[in-house]
Amino acid sequence: MLKGIINAFKVKELRGKILLTVGLLLLYRLGSYVPVPGIPFNELQSQYTAMGQIMGMPAFAVLNMFSGGALSRVSVFSLGIMPYITAQIIFQMMQAVIPSLEQLAKEGEAGQRKITQYTRYLALGLSLLNAIGYLFLFQSETFGGGINFAASGLPVPLMSVLVVGTMLTGSMLIMWFGEIITQRGVGNGMSLIIFCNIMSGIPSAIISEVTGSTNGAIVTAITLAVCIAIIPLIVFVERGQRRIPIQYAKRVVGRRVMGGQTTYLPIKVNTAGVVAIIFASSILYFPAQIAVFFPNVAWINAVANNISQGWMNWVLSVALIVFFSYFYTSMVFNPEDTADNLRKSGGFIPGVRPGAPTAAYIKNVLDKVTLPGAIFVAVLAVVPSIIFTFTNNSLVQTFGGTSILIMVGTALDTLSQLESQLKMYDYEGIFK
Predict the structure, then answer these.
(1) CB 178: neighbour CB atoms within 10 A?
(2) Topology adopted by domain 2-423
């Protein structure tokens, strides 16, 4: 792997993509530590600590984790990438129920650009709503007595506009960072930003757990050992695939005999990758985003907290992960199109008639393969949450199944993209 990464830096184009990706991620992390102008930083930290310890708001804590701690600092990147992810979920689901959007998605690059534009507009609206909601939360009694905006020396209405405008601008910058990384860098920008947010919380969680109790060092060592032991299993499932044999018939083209070879159609066990768990997490934490509009309404916060943790969260997590695994797989893998392309190129599955029977066979295999992959992802995401409920180990919460899946899945996806580009320049690649 090290040799492959060294080879990547030897290629000027790849070196530029890697440096662009790393530079934007570093700029994003820097922005998460820049507070909104006029916010009393020290006072804010003490109020957030008091709210977490006294009020106990797990929903807010989860949102803070996915923003990389930016929300607790009221930084310019407080909103994180979640509004953009939510907008993408909405439009992908709308494509399945609105024929005009489905037709637009099939128009190739021009249609995708149009859908991307609509997604940006929706992300802008969701970011504005979230920013206003956080403003209400920061001014409420729930947030440690509320931040005194008048202390900044500016009129409160002007200060409110400044806070909302700054967070809204930060959200649009994050969206731009993610799209630039996806288009001109290496890997998926959305996944890499979440990857950085999760990674940023691990050092502080380790230090807190080690210094927090007498047996903290032992518990931390055991937790890390279990997490490291699980990683090979995740890699095995992520790279696992079901190979359907494909035979190409011989045909004469001019004076040449074409076809006759045997190959296979690979179907991944976890075709959705980390997208299913990211989408499920975004849906589950959406009530927490709604709850910030009503910080003093007890029942709304109770619903948000119950959905963010406990048995309700576990059941919904399993159901949503399985649903989005099938949903996203159906979006990116169409058995009818695959069967039609095989027929046009003279390929067939041995023992299966071309056309509709081939499409039905591929769909049946796809459904059977997707289910164990989805259940594996769901179990790995839920079990650490159950352990955290009974142990209250902050490291388990930070470095739990969802975090490991996102980190390992994102790392594998990024390395796979890097490997495919390395092979274009006749290098060995990264995976052996």
Answers:
(1) 23
(2) Preprotein translocase SecY subunit (1.10.3370)
H/E stretch holding 363: helix 356-391
Structure tokens belonging to residue 169: 């601008």
In 10 A of CB 157, how many CB atoms? 9
Single-letter residue type at 178: G
pLDDT tens profile 270-301: 888 777 887 787 787 777 767 766 767 777 77
Q: If residue 253 lies in a helix (H) or strand (E), which one and from where to where?
A: strand 251-253
Residue 62 is encoded by which pair of tokens?
A: 């989860």
* DSSP state, residue 52: I
- Distance in angstroms (rounded) separating the CA atoms of residues 142 and 304: 15
How many residues comprise the chain? 432
Higher-pLDDT residue of 136, 316: 316
Say how far apart CA 374 and CA 381 lie, in whole Å.
11
Query: Residue written as tokens 């960072």?
Result: 177
Name residues whose C-beta falls within 8 Å of residue 47's C-beta, 6 or more positions apart in sequence.
143, 144, 145, 147
* DSSP three-state, residue 173: helix
Least Cα distance to 291 among 299, 279, 280 occurs for 299
The two structure tokens encoding residue 324: 């989005």
Q: What is the pTM of this model?
A: 0.76
Query: For the chain, which residues make up each domain, given as ranges?
Result: 2-423
